[in-house]
Amino acid sequence: MTAKRNSFSNSIGFVLAAAGSAIGLGNIWRFPYLAAKDGGGLFLAIYVVLALTFGFTLLFTEVALGRKTKQSSLTAYGKINKKFSWVGGFSALVPFLILPYYCIIGGWVLKYMIAFLTGHGVDAAADGYFSGFITGQYEPIIFDFIFLMAVAFVIYRGVNKGIEAISRILMPVLFVLVIGIAVFSISIKNPETGRTGLEGLKLFVVPSVEGLSVKDIFVVVIDAMGQLFYSISVAMGIMVTYGSYYKDKSNLIRSVNLIEIFDTIVAILAGVMIIPAVYVFMGKEGMTGGPGLMFIAIPKVFLQMGVAGQFIGAVFFIMVLFAALTSAMSVLEAVVAGFIDRFGMSRRRATVVETGIALVFGIIICLGYNVLYFDVKLPNGANAQILDIVDYLSNNIFMPVVAIGTCILIGWIAKPESMIEEATKNGEHFSRRTLYVVMIKFVAPVLLTVLLLGSLGII
Questions:
Q1: What is the pTM of this model?
Q2: What is the pLDDT of residue 229?
């Protein structure tokens, strides 16, 4: 199996694919929402510090683990130590759970993109449009199906002809669109109120602790740490799988650094895209729109831009769709690779099987907003439907558990040197060696345990 394993053609292909996974809805939707909620600049500063330390540690470990074992996450952990095969099982369960609802949200993005492209941006900005759409019995399922089929087609074609080929096209376009919309966002002004995009940018980048208690700052740290899981695609089997396709002669450390840089830049640019524009037309109140920010508040912002808003809205949702596609590709690939490595399936069969399973679960989740609707309270205090429950289990429970297991395995059983040796076997210099050892053995496990306890409602 190892001899026939596909690989990325070069470091650029790997970096673009891995960055495409990292730069998804978590950056473009969740990052601005959390930044607005947690004081803008304060959240941003904490996030950057964590990205360069905590985030780097997990990202580096998973890529090195994948390349060392030449296995997807389902089987890679067992290759290092059989007693830790359970970590591989949990890591494979995460993308299995995420894929159905991620494709549903991708379908939502597709719906809004079509609305703006066809001149119905005014309708998309109307009160009740979003809730009316997701509570429909058929339309959300149709858009989920279209998005899922597009993702499955790419994975069906394989690593080089599928993932790498599409990433080389979409990622440069995505980056240009993000920069263009960010520049536009900070250049606009509301003629009625006088608020400007630059003032909104200041709220985003300038840290402020005014009125915040120690507990509030602790919440910001936890939010920023949780965001890193979404942002850099760790603890969900993706980076281990992509690392297994990374050639031995390539510079792993440099590639991880580039992924880290691209992801952080796009996360910041996402905030620059959204927060100033929302502030200009909706004030500080509009910046607290929560998860519905992208589908409820942002269309209203485009509506207030007049004729230009129709065009800007279309470009924005095209950009979000590209980001959703590159991330969903990596989620599906993590599951498919597990089927190939563990059960000896062909890529085509594994893709068809997992696509069918994701479609069935996706239909059930879509029906959770109508026929199967119910409302429960989660341990973290949030009200939830089926989609929220699956999201909570995968992101708030299983991902921290996987990350803690990874830290224990690499930090104390296999030892950090096992990953460092893999990354430096071609003579590369590892400048953050000491930081990595301290983080993987001591700091990261503590932070992750706190995050898990917070998700469980214990602290």
A1: 0.95
A2: 84
User: What are the φ and ψ backbone dihedral angles of 194, each rounded to 5 degrees?
Assistant: 85, 0
Give 290's DSSP letter. G
Predicted pLDDT of residue 22: 83
The pair phi, psi for residue 125, each rounded to 5°, is: -90, -5
Structure-token match 């240009």, residue found: 176
* For residue 361, pLDDT beyond 70: yes
Query: What does the pLDDT look like over 111-164, one tens digit per residue?
Result: 999 999 999 999 999 999 999 999 999 999 999 999 999 999 999 999 999 999
- Backbone φ and ψ for 101, nearest 5 degrees, come out as -80, -25
State the Cα–Cα distance between residues 167 and 14, nearest whole angstrom. 9
Weakest mean pLDDT among 177-186, 219-228, 419-428, 438-447: 219-228
Name the phi and psi angles at 70, rounded to 5: 55, 40
Residues contacting 81, CB < 8 A, separation 6+: 409, 413, 414
Q: How many C-beta atoms surround the C-beta of residue 215 within 10 A?
A: 7
* CB burial of residue 59 (10 Å; 0-12, 13-18, 19+): buried
What does the block give as tokens for 87?
């970590």
pLDDT digits (tens, 9 = 90+) for 23-64: 888 788 788 888 888 878 899 999 999 999 999 999 999 999
Strand partners, 196: 189
**Cα distance between residue 267 and residue 26, in whole Å:** 9
Cβ neighbours around 19 below 10 Å, total: 25
Sign of CA dihedral 36, 38, 39, 40: negative
Q: For 376, which DSSP code?
A: E
Which residue has 């026939």 as its token pair?
4
**Distance (Å, rounded) from C-alpha 433 to C-alpha 431?**
6
Q: Can you tell me the distance from the alpha carbon of 120 to that of 112, in angstroms, rounded to the nearest whole number?
A: 9
The 10s digit of each residue's pLDDT in 387-417 is 999 999 999 999 999 999 999 999 999 999 9
**Alpha helices for 158-213 (secondary structure H):** 165-187, 197-205
Structure tokens at 359: 């479609």
DSSP 8-state code for residue 381: S
